[in-house]
Amino acid sequence: MASQLNELKIIGRLERVHFPEWNLTNINAKVDTGAYTSSLHCHHIQPFDRDGERYVKFNLLDPSHDTYIDDKFELPICRTKTVKSSNGSTEERYVVETRVELFGETIKAKFSLTDRSEMRYPVLLGRKLLNGRFLVDVSQKYISQEIEEKKI
């Protein structure tokens, strides 16, 4: 057990992540061990069918964000998920799979798409992505950025 813990990277309560498939870098992410699935801030989320498969098209982030790109992205829907927010309301979300980079490691992960414009951070990293890879030190933030800067 102790050797497994030694192999896990320490992550702070806030980190910067990259989405290489979408050419997005240094996106602020909140680490949330209370959330099972990670989520991503999107708008204009629209499901559609293509060749008998369910897809979703969406814009990442929103025009007020520094790295906003006014492109529509289209991905297959992995599943839908009913999510209960911290204020008690429920929402049906589409879940997609993409790659996220953190601590120089590229991870294939599932993200639910939602409007996080009222939230401070556009990305939320949940337990499914964190489990077996990271230990969370809530007293720290942006540890991955410090490590990347030391490499330069």
UniProtKB/TrEMBL annotation:
Q: Which domain of life is it from?
A: Bacteria
Stored InterPro entries: Asp_endopeptidase (IPR008503), Peptidase_aspartic_dom_sf (IPR021109)
Which organism is the protein's source? Fodinibius halophilus
Q: Which PANTHER family match?
A: ATP-DEPENDENT ZINC PROTEASE DOMAIN-CONTAINING PROTEIN-RELATED, ZN_PROTEASE DOMAIN-CONTAINING PROTEIN
Domain Retropepsin-like aspartic endopeptidase stretches:
10-145
Mind telling me what this protein is named? Answer: Retropepsin-like aspartic endopeptidase domain-containing protein
